[in-house]
Amino acid sequence: MANFTPDFTWLKKRPLCFLGFGFGSGLAPIAPGTFGTLPALPIAFFLYLIGISGWWLAVLSMVLFIWGIKICNHTERELGIQDYGGIVWDEIVAMLLVLAFMPFRWDWWLAAFVLFRLFDAIKPWPIKWLDARIHGGFGIMLDDTVAALFTILILKITAWLII
């Protein structure tokens, strides 16, 4: 399927792939990872409004990580393409994890978004190492989760230094 390009019609027939593609956001023709991260923002906003934040959001992120292994495995299988760029469930889940540890303020969320996307795109060690060696749904989910942990660490250090 080297010449296959998924579209919204293809996703509508495959509910797990629809999730894998971040409700369709992974279909973006450029920067699908960045567009795929965006759904995490309104999802987190809604969850914060109904009282799911902090450690509860982190726990939810871990549950979504485990489901994400299945979602991403299934989506890869359906596509016939390994680690396809449009599979963005991992970005959504990782961003939710980052936001679980950020103040509920637009400036922190913007910084978290930008820094997470930077780590996910540049893939410093060990993210690049993990990405190259661990495949399938677990590999897809793992490298973004490590990028999320880097983001949390850097922003927490920054907060500690400026407060």
UniProtKB/TrEMBL annotation:
Pfam families: PgpA
Keyword Transcription assigned: no
Topology relative to the membrane: Multi-pass membrane protein
Domain YutG/PgpA: residue ranges: 20-157
Pathway connected to this protein: Phospholipid metabolism; phosphatidylglycerol biosynthesis; phosphatidylglycerol from CDP-diacylglycerol: step 2/2
GO cellular component, one term: plasma membrane
Keyword Coiled coil among UniProt keywords: no
Gene Ontology MF annotations: metal ion binding; phosphatidylglycerophosphatase activity
Cofactor: Mg(2+)
Catalytic activity: a 1,2-diacyl-sn-glycero-3-phospho-(1'-sn-glycero-3'-phosphate) + H2O = a 1,2-diacyl-sn-glycero-3-phospho-(1'-sn-glycerol) + phosphate
Alphabetically ordered keywords of this record: Cell inner membrane, Cell membrane, Hydrolase, Lipid degradation, Lipid metabolism, Magnesium, Membrane, Metal-binding, Phospholipid degradation, Phospholipid metabolism, Transmembrane, Transmembrane helix
Localization annotation: Cell inner membrane
Signal peptide positions on this chain: none
Main location: membrane
Transmembrane segments: 46-69, 81-102, 138-162
EC number, UniProt record: 3.1.3.27
Enzyme kind, highest EC tier: hydrolase
InterPro entries: PgpA, PgpA-like_sf, YutG/PgpA
One GO-annotated biological process of the protein: phospholipid catabolic process
Domain of life: Bacteria
Summary of the function given for this chain in its UniProt record: Lipid phosphatase which dephosphorylates phosphatidylglycerophosphate (PGP) to phosphatidylglycerol (PG).
Protein name: Phosphatidylglycerophosphatase A
Taxonomic path: Bacteria, Pseudomonadati, Pseudomonadota, Betaproteobacteria, Neisseriales
